[in-house]
Each structure stands twice: as C-alpha cells, then as structure tokens.
Amino acid sequence: MTRKRISGPERRTLILAAARRVFSQYGYEGAKTLQIAREANVSEALVYRHFPSKLALYRAVMRQVFKEQDDHYQLLGLQETNAAGLIRTLKTYFRTVIAEAEEDQEQRFRMTLASLAGDGNYASLIYRRSQRLNAKKVGEAHKNARESGEITGKPLSVANTAMFIEHVGTMISAIRALAPASRPYDSDNEDLAMDALWFCCRGIGLTDDVIARYIDA
Hints:
This is HTH tetR-type domain-containing protein. Pfam families: TetR_N. Keywords: DNA-binding. GO terms for molecular function: DNA-binding transcription factor activity; transcription cis-regulatory region binding. This protein has ten helices and no strands. The protein is mostly helical and about 220 residues long. The protein has two domains: about 60 residues, Homeodomain-like (Arc Repressor Mutant, subunit A); about 140 residues. The chain is elongated.
C-alpha cells in the first residue's frame, strides 16, 4: 500500500499544531525543537526547513493566536453598552471558556500561564491586545450602567476589572485541563460558568436584582 505523500504546507501545519501543544505545556523557554519535531512525527531538520529558529516558530504560533483572539472578540465582543450588554457578554464569555472550551482555546490559556511563569512577554502582548479590543465599549457600558444606577458602590478601574474577569476565565479554563479528580471545583461546567458569572458581575458592582433581570433575558 502506497503511503500518501504529505505536502509542504500540510507538514508546516502539523509542525505548528505540535508547537502549540509543546509551547502550551512548557512555555517558550522550556520548549525544545526536538520535542516539537517528535510531537509532529518529523525530523528536527525538517522543522528547521520550515522555520529557521525556535523564535520564528513561536512567532508563527503567536500570529495564529492573535488571529483567533480577533475572531474571539468578534464573537464575544460587547454589543450593548449598558448593564444588560455587560451581563450577556460575560455569560457568553464564561460559557465559551468554561462550559464549551475547545482544545485550541485551552492551549492559548496554558500558553499565557506558561508565559507568566517565564519572561511574561507573550502574556503581556495578549493582555494589551485584549484591552485595546475591549476598552472603549466596556468603558461606555460601565459609565452607562453606573448612571442608570445598575452599577453601585465604589467606582473601580474599568481596565483593572476587565483584566480581573479575564484572569478568572483563564485560570478556570487552565484548571479544567487537569484530570477530573484533580480539579478543585464541586460543580459541573455549566454551574461553574454561572458561578463565575455571578462572582464577576457582583465584583464590578452590578446588583443581584440587575443580574437576575438580564442573566436569562
């Protein structure tokens, strides 16, 4: 039986997919090109034929991640700049990253955590891009919700609270990648997503009445 020959672009795709898995597990500093080659079932020389260095390979993975981040924003980005919009967007966010998380999304979160444990450059880029994509609409939504009395209490930095929410989603999604017996949560994914939603909505000052009004709307 003749083995199907894999084209150059297909091999490059396989190497990139393998690199994502290795980078998400070991970070940039800990990953080795030999590990990536073995994960892709190719020689290390072939990896270097497609990518001249580990840094070039890492940058190619980052370009993939940035494209996915942009697509993710288009799907989950705030549509209504008010309390209802904040709650609905957060509900979609937590359901997506917790209850419906896919492998590539979990890899992105693990890469962020690995970066934070290393030089932090990748995580810093991801967070700055997230702020740039979300800042204007989220700021308007907070302002409108406070003026309507739906956000109460001490005013908090909108940029900080947006990052706090992203950190909650990142950590929960990363922990979900553990074996079920090692996860420290006592609820299934849907209940966990709703607990995270209530926790973060309360944290930014939305009242329970307001959350209940819009959470299932």
